[in-house]
Amino acid sequence: MKKLLPTLYLITITAFALKFFDAKFVPTKFLNYTNYLLISASALAALPQLISAKGGFTPAVRVIVFAIVFSIPMAYLVWGQSLSVSVFETLPYLPWIYFFVLIRLNFSIATLEKIIVGFSLVYLALYFFQFVMAPTIYFGRSLWGDTFSVDRGVIRIIFPGAGIFILAALMAINKITSRAPGRPFWIALAAMGLIIPVMQVTRQFILGMTLLILYHVLRSQNILLRIVTLATAGLFLIGLLNADIPQIDGVIAAGQRDADLGKEYIRVRAGTYFLTDFSPEWPAQVFGNGVARWGEGYYGRFVELLGNRRGYYLSDVGIIAVYANFGLLAILGFALMWYRSFTVPLPAEYQYLKYYLWYLLFTSVTWFSVYHHHYVIATVFALYIYHVIQLRTVVVQEDGIERKYYLPQQPGPFPTPVKNLP
């Protein structure tokens, strides 16, 4: 029972953090208020860890949490948005607090990985259901109108909750090369990690997953195998480009159109505006403007008009949106997180944690993957596992050479060597 209750708790907070994949048949108020309750109660429970936990990724996550909290009064001071509205609009961005809950629970990495894979399978099942049932919306929302519409040559479904699926797909790639049991299952899940981005016709998704998978394959090969792998990948890419696939044609057409626009590309213009002109006073330039309630009050109506009249949406500018909402302190937290992802080594079977954080970095310029509820819970899981591994890594002197070993939470016969990525 002691192990079952934390597992049920984690499954519950994950489902509500993902808002049940934005299911249309679940009442919005029920989702929101339950989510507010879970986050608030968890914050109180994890307060000692938030204040006193040390080492690993705690400094980065703590800075991000404080930045988000500090932004709440800024929306009132700068824009006149009431504190109660700011609190309710900001809470959905605070699943970061679950990182400290996991530390308090000392949650099992093996169980957490199973939860990640389980939710990724739910993601796949619901995505294919929604794909078959399109254009009627059962999960998520359309980019335009009340039904999924044709965009980039296909009915485009940006399915909610992608973070948990991306983390699981990268885990699958890692499991294949580390010879984990259940190889056929991991191969199938890894394949979905390439197929789903193409079906969703999202350039960052496609390119990010492709580059990370290719990197993982190449990093352990000798020079000859690398040449063969790159040549094979190149031929495969050429074949795709000439295969008359609507999704591929749509991605190419969109890329060419945006490249032709150059500095006039709407996301470039939006990013420049939110970076330089959005904050009306200097305190907001430092501590952020806080989160607006769309369409309500002066602040909410201003943000709505920016989107509807000028096409400037915070969701299109990634890390710049983090700065606009939560200020320089949040940027510092993300910088610390990514810096550690490049400098802190991991055992071979956990390299997927780095890859997930690098995926966030790669997509952070023009996508909301760094802060949206579709991704934050998966980011928390990745950081917690990374954090535990770092704290359980010991340095041993062997024949005058320092070697690092990871001591698993459930000890096996031998510790696992830790190596830096080449």
TrEMBL record:
The chain crosses the membrane at residues 33-53, 60-79, 85-103, 115-133, 153-173, 185-217, 223-241, 317-339, 359-386. Coiled coil: none annotated. Keywords: Membrane, Transmembrane, Transmembrane helix. This is Uncharacterized protein.
